[in-house]
Amino acid sequence: MKKRHQTVGIFPTPVIDEDPAKKVLESVKSQFQRIEIAQHPVYGDQLWIDGDLQISVSDHAYNVAMVSPLLSHGNLEYVCILGGGDGGVLYELLLSAERNGLPLKKATLVDIDGQVVDLSKKYLSDFCGNAFEHHNTEIIIGDAFAYLHRANRLDAIIYDLTMDPIREESDRRKYIGDVIKAISDSLNAGGMLSMQVCGEKEHDPMLSMPRTEYIEILTAEVMKHFAGYVLQNVFIPSFEEAWTFLTAQKPS
User: Fold this and answer.
1) How is residue 226 annotated by DSSP?
2) Are 57 and 43 in contact (CB under 8 A)?
3) Under CATH, to which class is 57-249 assigned?
């Protein structure tokens, strides 16, 4: 799914971060996780997974941070979003491509849980617009990592998941390295990666190591396959902290 975890039974149990100010509009237990749509008096409608905030309609800055670095790619035709079932990043991608005259032919979104997509369509239309029904959109309900290993010739990949290992006992460095290599292998020459990294807290409760060490490992693995990278910190309102985002480009 989103910022801190993907699905129950695959990633470690998420930290419960409930907000007493939220009003739950609908709560559904899918085959993977507990999904809640809530209304917050300050941040508007929200998506929560297993008691963990994923996104709010006030968090447009998150979508812009994920998409805007890709606009420098002059031939942005085929883009894949891994995760992002709320549709916000997808909507921003479609709007930005249209506004900037980019030749986007297909935007593929891969999310494990179709009920997240359905609830986002129902409640978060101010956030996702008509992105799920757009003629350039392809929605795949399935495992993002399985899709990644069979994908190829993409111009950009937006990684809207965490880098938490699938199994808690897995080696984080190897896992990160495997994911980054799979992303690189799926991209054309000159292809771009955009991803969220983590929040600004020195030790994010969902990371098994300090944030600085995690970023060092991630950037080292990125440099094995990409020509370089850029980190940016962007304040995300409903999380009340800055998030780090990474962009990298393969050699042409």
Assistant:
1) S
2) yes
3) alpha beta
